[in-house]
Specification:
Blueprint: H1 24-34, H2 37-42, E1 47-48, E2 59-60, H3 81-87, H4 90-109, E3 121-122, H5 146-161, E4 171-177, E5 190-191, H6 195-211, E6 217-220, E7 224-225, E8 228-229, H7 235-244, E9 252-253, H8 259-265, H9 273-283, H10 296-307, H11 313-329, H12 351-363, E10 366-370, E11 383-387, H13 409-419, E12 423-427, E13 431-437, H14 463-466, E14 472-476, E15 482-486, E16 492-495, E17 502-506, E18 518-522, E19 528-532, E20 538-541, E21 548-552, E22 561-567, H15 569-578, E23 582-588, H16 608-620, E24 625-629, H17 637-642, E25 645-649, H18 656-664, H19 693-696, H20 699-702, E26 720-727, E27 731-733, E28 737-746, E29 752-762, E30 773-782, E31 787-795, E32 801-803, E33 808-810, E34 814-821, E35 827-836, E36 843-844, E37 850-851, E38 857-859, E39 861-865, E40 872-876, E41 882-891, E42 901-908, E43 915-920, E44 928-934, E45 946-951, E46 959-967, E47 970-978
Parallel strand pairs: 3-4, 4-6, 5-7, 6-9, 11-12, 11-23, 23-24, 24-25, 27-35, 36-41
Antiparallel strand pairs: 1-2, 7-8, 10-25, 13-14, 13-22, 14-15, 16-17, 18-19, 20-21, 26-28, 28-31, 29-30, 29-34, 32-33, 34-35, 37-47, 38-41, 39-40, 41-46, 42-45, 42-47, 43-44, 43-46
Helix pairs in contact: 1-11, 4-5, 4-12, 5-6, 6-7, 8-9, 9-10, 12-18, 13-18, 15-16
């Protein structure tokens, strides 16, 4: 590898790449030409060292900014992304992202401590769709719908990037491409996504921000898609970069942390690291995130890849060029011309950003049910009981910033009630317990003179002697997961990694490895074992020192504890409710527990302890109001049936309490709308790995069972009516644009905000069409009695579906409905529309190639990679000995007396017999058998593709539905018919 020194450079200020008058591409090319190969390779790593001889500074990719600047210290914290999604407010998301980007600029000016400035490339927003509410990272996405997600992501990206024509405020990067919606074994699971789902659903969420130029980069996901890891997916080039071509800028693709190493180590997709790293770069990954500041391992693998000819200098230069282009656009080389260079610390948590945080938190609150219980009265002497484990706490999540202050629900409500002369009484409703060690008789406690030090359970102590030091509030988060908060320190008990001791010194459960979660495992003698979930070990006790350590690997070596309730949490909550005129119960989740990155939820029910608390309080005070503060939907069926009011908010950041108080007391109007379906508790949800939303029946588009609360649902304190739905034409051609108008009236007595939702539906479609699909929306605020006519410009192309026969989006001629609704299930008005134009012709099998993945129906099959670089195939899914495929309207061509063959491209990796059976107009027993193709065993595994052929019956010609049955370990890539066999894969053109 050439690393020879370059010729002496002129002063760096005189070099062409420093000249802002030159075109960006020329400046980048000039700088590339002055870097050695080693220096260019270093640009492919997250931490790129500086090049002093050229005045090139060190650079790090990636600052988290999902709903505030993360991990860099106190910063304004806005609602979680799912809460921002609930606002359905594009302008608000633009303002929030502008604030986040502005604060990121301020942090960029602060010393970082590691020699690499805090990055101005922001790894946000997350554009993954909320297909399954059990996804551990549900809080990070905006919505289950691609149109809503796409529009909100455009707004967020534009706010991050700024509006300067040359320079970027920050460089937004979309996460995580593609079809990523499960945490359990996320680097091993393959998301099976047929072409319609791929184009209509998953890609549709990413496309708007990229095609509009709002996003500057993309991060591939950890998972595989159709058998191929996302980090080597050809979609990075064939789709993502193709969308960006019209923007004039190339996308910068950064790997997720450790994902390129996973290609070899956990996924075993490649034999060694140089091969996997080279494959990722060739597929379009420009920057690799791995071992933090120490890039020696990754850079060594890249250098080896170059030495072995797996990567060329052109490959390196292409990635380096994209890296440098972002840095030029961020103003690094033109600080005097950068309009964002002067931003300083006073913008962080500024009064303006605090006000914006309050507005965002308020708009994100969704009123799910209200039978008149809300808004609450603040009349003098009125007493409100606020109960629940989230009544007086706010949680940060993994991608939160550090909240500079916390207005809890208790604080916000108490302040507001006092102003009117009303009173608040608060009870968390959790048990306070002691744990007594069997071996010493001592209580688990914090040391008297060092409350933050290692916890002990020495002998000769009792509750009176130890007081609060030995008392712990027990929070039950479900599935046996508990947290303990010491009554004296008011901090959570945590495991210390170094010496495995316990200390009560954490403000909340936190960290990548959460050390604050425990189990109390009941033993036959009635005692319990204390087990830390993070390290899996049990608490043991040193009788000499009384010190407790989490070191016992087996139950027989663990200390036994006797639990005693010092305070009955439910009884306390019920007493508070009994003393009040109304009760507000605040339940939900801790974002670090039972559903977070690396951990999916097992179900959608409330933790049993929280459900029991709710029912007990409601029995005493039927006027109870439920507030759910959570990162995801819960099946609150009982509450919906028995309580007069239910409210949801995400973890809304520093202003959550003030926002909720304003909504509960009617000082602000609820305007949030659900960004995802809330399913009923008895609804058997599809499998978490079933990414085919069409066949599985996911989301409001395809789920037939009535939801608890539908997508788009949200109530207000006033009422709205929709009337006079009009279309500019009742009949339109496939390339027309319609004007859809509707009159909206506030028919209530209070001002309010309605989100008018426009849906479309195909009537009697040839394919399985959505029940309805969101096509547009508008958020409108009206005074009492005010009326406004709204207009939507709707291209007929918005009715398109992905045609597997045409390999493109197409609008079928026929009947459609235009619908206006309060939600996806509350449709107020419907208007018919007829689309005219030619129907798609039947796809031809004669002389052409019908890709196996372009089926209309698949039963018992799955999709896999055809090669490591490109292409897909169909094979029977695990547990199935065969699968069935249907291809509608296939022209077999031919004449009764003409010679014809039918050919399949197949592979087989097992020794079992494998066949492809091909029928017309029905399967075995009902259709006409056209051919049975025996699949030969491959000599090089399943990537060894062969073509097999058989004569086609002369009498079967013209258009038919084809039915294929794959038996055994066959992989099918394509079929063809006609007078010539299918060309081998090696002769196929590149994409």
């Amino acid at each position: 590898m050439s690393t020879a020194a370059t010729a002496p450079e002129p002063p760096t200020t005189d070099l062409p790449f420093r000249d802002p008058a030159l075109p960006l591409a020329r400046r980048v090319d000039d700088l590339i030409s002055r870097l050695t190969l080693d220096e260019r390779i270093e640009l492919l790593y997250q931490y790129s060292p500086g090049v002093p001889r050229l005045g090139l500074a060190s650079f790090k990719t990636g600052t988290e900014g999902l709903h505030g600047v993360s991990w860099l210290g106190p910063a304004t914290v806005f609602p979680q992304a799912v809460g921002l999604g609930a606002t359905w407010d594009e302008e608000l998301l633009h303002e929030v992202a502008t604030a986040v980007g502005t604060e990121a600029r301020a942090f960029h000016e602060r010393p970082s401590g590691d020699g690499y400035p805090h990055s101005l490339q922001i790894w946000a927003p997350v554009v993954n769709l909320l297909r399954d509410p059990r996804w551990g990272r549900n809080e990070e996405g905006y919505a289950e719908d691609p149109l809503l997600t796409g529009r909100l992501s455009v707004s967020y990206c534009r706010g991050l990037a700024g509006d300067h024509p040359v320079h970027l405020r920050t460089a937004p990067l979309l996460k995580h491409f593609l079809a990523y919606n499960n945490e359990d074994e996320r680097d091993l699971t393959s998301s099976v996504v047929p072409p319609r789902v791929l184009h209509e659903y998953d890609l549709a969420a990413f496309r708007p921000a990229i095609e509009s130029g709002a996003a500057t980069g993309v991060m591939p996901a950890y998972n595989l898609i159709n058998g191929r890891p996302c980090h080597v997916s050809p979609l990075l080039e064939t789709e993502v970069r193709r969308w960006a071509q019209t923007t004039g800028h190339e996308l910068f693709v950064c790997s997720d942390a450790g994902a390129v190493t996973n290609l070899t180590e956990s996924e075993h997709y490649f034999d060694d690291h140089p091969t996997s790293h080279a494959a990722a770069v060739r597929a379009g990954v420009d920057n690799i995130t791995e071992q933090r500041e120490d890039g020696s391992i990754t850079l060594g693998r890249l250098r080896t890849a170059v030495d072995r000819g797996l990567l060329t200098e052109a490959d390196i230069d292409r990635a380096a060029r994209r890296h440098l282009s972002i840095r030029f656009r961020l103003g690094e080389f033109d600080p005097d011309l950068d309009p964002y260079a002067g931003i300083r610390d006073d913008v962080v948590d500024s009064p303006e950003h605090r006000a914006l945080a309050l507005r965002a938190a308020t708009e994100s609150v969704v009123l799910l049910k209200n039978d008149g219980a809300l808004p609450l009265s603040t009349a003098p002497g009125r007493r409100v009981a606020l109960v629940g484990p989230l009544a007086d706490t706010l949680f940060e999540d993994w991608y939160s910033g550090t909240m500079p202050y916390r207005i809890t629900v208790a604080t916000g409500l108490e302040t507001a009630l006092k102003e009117g002369g009303a009173e608040l009484v608060c009870a968390e409703g959790v048990d306070r317990i002691t744990l007594r060690a069997a071996s010493t008789g001592g209580l688990l406690r914090v040391p008297a003179f060092d409350p933050g030090g290692p916890m002990v359970a020495g002998a000769s102590t009792d509750e009176q002697e130890c007081g609060d030091s030995a008392c712990h509030d027990l929070f039950d988060w479900g599935e046996g997961v508990l947290t303990l908060r010491n009554a004296r320190t008011e901090r959570y008990v945590t495991l210390k990694d170094g010496d495995l001791t316990l200390a009560a010194d954490q403000t909340q459960p936190n960290g990548w490895f959460v050390h604050e979660t425990f189990r109390l495992e009941l033993q036959p003698d009635g005692t319990e074992l204390l087990r830390n979930i993070s390290n899996g070990r049990y608490a043991a006790l040193d009788p000499a020192t009384g010190r407790v350590t989490l070191c016992a690997e087996a139950p027989e070596k663990a200390e036994r504890w006797t639990r005693t309730a010092v305070r009955d949490g439910i009884a306390e909550a019920v007493a508070a409710a009994a003393s009040a005129d109304v009760a507000v119960v605040v339940l939900g989740n801790d974002p670090h527990i039972n559903g977070r990155e690396t951990e999916d939820r097992s179900g959608i029910s409330l933790p049993p302890a929280q459900e029991a608390l709710l029912r007990a309080v409601a029995t005493e005070r039927p006027e109870a109001v439920l507030v759910v503060m959570s990162s995801y939907p819960y099946a609150v069926d009982w509450a919906d049936k028995h309580l007069p009011a239910v409210v949801w908010t995400s973890h809304g950041g520093q202003e959550t309490g003030r926002a909720l108080a304003a909504i509960l007391l009617g000082e602000a109007e609820p305007s949030g709308r659900l960004p995802q379906t809330w399913y009923r508790g008895d609804d058997p949800l599809p499998g978490r790995l079933d990414y085919d939303i069409i066949s599985a029946g996911w989301t409001y588009q395809y789920h037939d069972a009535a939801p608890l609360y539908p997508f788009g649902h949200g109530l207000t304190y006033t009422t709205f009516s929709h009337s006079q739905l009009r279309l500019s034409a009742r009949e339109a051609a496939q390339d027309d644009t319609l004007t859809v108008s509707v009159e909206l009236t506030n028919t209530g007595t209070r001002p309010g905000t309605e989100t008018v939702q426009l849906y479309t539906r195909a009537v009697a479609a040839r394919h399985r069409a959505p029940r309805r699909r969101l096509t547009d929306f508008r958020k409108v605020s009206l005074a009492p009695g005010e009326r406004r006519r709204l207009e939507f410009d709707m291209p007929v192309a918005a009715l398109a579906h992905w045609s597997v026969s045409a390999g493109a989006f197409a609008v079928d001629p026929g009947r459609y409905e235009i619908q206006i609704g309060h939600s996806s299930e509350a449709i107020a008005l419907t208007a018919p529309l007829t689309v005219t134009g030619p129907a798609l012709p039947a796809r031809s099998l004669s002389g052409g190639r019908l890709e196996a993945v372009d089926f209309d129906e698949c039963v018992g099959g799955t999709l896999v990679d055809a090669t490591r670089e490109k292409g897909e195939a169909v094979t029977p899914a695990t547990g199935h000995i065969h699968c069935g495929l249907r291809y509608r309207s296939v022209d077999l061509g031919g004449t009764p007396d003409g010679p014809r063959v039918i050919t399949a491209e197949v592979s087989r990796a097992t020794e079992e017999d494998a066949t492809v059976e091909i029928y017309a107009d029905g399967g075995p027993g009902t259709g006409t058998l056209l051919a049975v193709l025996d699949v030969p065993a491959g000599t090089h595994g399943r990537y060894d593709w062969r073509t097999v052929s058989a004569p086609m019956p002369a009498e079967v010609t013209g258009v038919h539905d084809l039915h294929l049955v794959l038996r055994g370990g066959v992989h099918l890539a394509a079929i063809a018919g006609g007078t010539r066999p299918l060309p081998p894969r090696s002769q196929l053109p590149e994409h």
